[in-house]
């Protein structure tokens, strides 16, 4: 009789253990999910790129009459840096950024009389020695990938040197220009601190550049446009 009772108890315990094991096995195993990436915070970084500046301008005589025309075309590399701050609400990211880059952009174009009569009468050597901007940014974040647009104020320094074909007149001048700029880019976070990005930025400046040879070259009047393609790296803090 005791043996039969003991057997019943053992069978009951075994059945209970098996049921408990089935319950545990049927419960989902929790998985660890990392926290979503947040773009909020300040950053500082470096950039390098390539820029092209061009215009279709006129040289004005002392009476304001168009006398000569030129098409400056400057191209070259950029190297500089940026600093900014982002704040994220949901998938939307807004921020502000300042940039400044040294430019090696330069070029040479012909100067012709107006209205055009024959060939060129002089050459125009032109360059812009730096490129900067202060912009607001608006972006859309997909975790560690940020798509953004930007717009604001742009700055540059445009310099020109004109030499007549007979080498009898040499006029030069430079001016710091302020204009507007817009652009767009993509930024990818590598980890919590470092990110890389690529962007395109357009600048437009209203140039009114006085040259120092009143006998032939007076004032160069033009809209000077710059296209810049840039790659950068940022450190977030």
Question: How would you describe the overall organization of this protein?
Answer:
With 237 residues, the chain is mainly β. The chain has 1 helix and 10 strands, in the order αββββββββββ. The chain has one helix at residues 2-26, and strands at 41-54, 57-60, 66-70, 73-89, 92-113, 122-142, 145-164, 170-189, 194-213, 217-236. Strands 1, 2, 3, 4, 5, 6, 7, 8, 9 and 10 form a 10-stranded antiparallel sheet that branches. β8 (170-189) and β9 (194-213) form a beta hairpin.
Give short descriptive properties of this protein.
237 residues; mainly beta; 10-stranded antiparallel sheet; 1 helix; 10 strands; 11% helix; elongated; disordered N terminus
Give a quick rundown of the structure.
This protein has 237 residues and is mainly beta. Helix content is 11%, strand content 69%.
Rounded mean pLDDT is 83
Unreliable stretches, pLDDT < 50, 5 or more residues? 1-11, 17-26
The secondary-structure class comes to mainly beta
The 3D shape can be described as: elongated
Q: Main sheet, how many strands, which sense, barrel?
A: 10 strands, antiparallel
Taken as a percent bin, the fraction of beta residues is over 45%
Question: Which radius of gyration do the C-alpha atoms yield?
Answer: 33 Å
Q: Give the terminus-to-terminus CA distance.
A: 78 Å
Total number of helices: 1
What is the H/E order?
HEEEEEEEEEE
Helix content: 10-25%
Number of strands: 10
Give the quaternary arrangement of the chains.
single chain
